[in-house]
Amino acid sequence: MSNSLEQSLDNPSLSRVRLLACREVASLLSVSKRTVLRMSARGELPQPIRLGGKIPRWRLADIERHVSVLARGEARSAQALRAAQNMPRGEGVAQ
Questions:
Q1: Rounded to 10 degrees, what is the CA torsion of 65, 67, 73, 78?
Q2: pTM of whole model > 0.70?
Q3: What CATH class does 3-85 carry?
């Protein structure tokens, strides 16, 4: 194992990061995989991390925070969603 990888694995904050596949996000939200992809493209979900440039994965913490905001009824506009996702203006929408 490379030294930098060992250091990364020893990082407590990194070890708590859980990445979710589309099917896992769909299951958490009780929707289809296609709906997750559509919601992501419309900026209605936190933006995924793209592994290898193509494979989308979402941070569990981002999805949990997003659902919490929705449950509180604060996500009535794109501005509220961006604030919940901690994103600068314009970054939450797929191009």
A1: 80
A2: no
A3: mainly alpha
